Amino acid sequence: MIKHLGAPEAQGLDLDSPEAMRAHRAILQRNKVLKRLYQDCYWTFGEQMKLLAPLPGRYLELGSGGGFLKDVFPDVTTSDMCKDPGVDRVIDASRLPYSHGELKGIFLLNVLHHLPDVMAFFKEADRCLVRGGRLVMIEPYNSWLGRIVYKNLHHEPFDETAQAWSVQGSGRLTGSNQALPWIIFSRDQPQFEKHFPNLKIVAIQPHTILRYLLSGGLSWRAMAPAFSYRALRGVDGLLSRWTGAFPLFQTIVLESDEEELDP
For 109-134, how does the pLDDT look when each residue is reduced to its tens digit (9 = 90+)? Predict the structure, then answer.
């Protein structure tokens, strides 16, 4: 029974291989609920791009993988650790190939919790962002339901008790701690602010429950029809008010230096 619930493209897949990106792209094309969820995430990025439009600089997505952000926003440079036809540049997040102030927006969708050296990444983001530029991340969230889902129904580790800002394993996708964004920006927020005073926390917004669960993610078949998506989004909006209980994801927005922009 469980085997039949799995996404066929994900069966026997080496998640750290370039083939995983192509498999994930195929899953997104077939799974309409998951694709709509990605589109909502990209809409969130797009709202930030509108605010950043007056600033000089480029937009960069890290860990683009099998996503399709460039189809929605062609001006974004996509990147990953592996070569792929859907990736513009091969980039290591701990060594960004950009000069000081060359970027006005850096976007990550479920990527931060895979980075083996988050301190180096934040230093690079601080260096490369123009004053007023933003780092926008959509990441797992440590709610009551989130802990149940991520610890029991997901293949990646979730350890909210970890003391170090590090991941378990070293693979592109298998190296992970899904609790890492919560650790950095909630539990250890004073430490982050001390280490990176130029990266101001503008917003931390928990969200998304049923849309993700019933989409099946990248590992399982969708358990809801595409026409139900708007209703699921409405229910998610209501349930997300109980931030400690239900949300599975969070949007984190950081801004470089002190230039004022609306959240």
Answer: 999 999 999 999 999 999 999 999 99
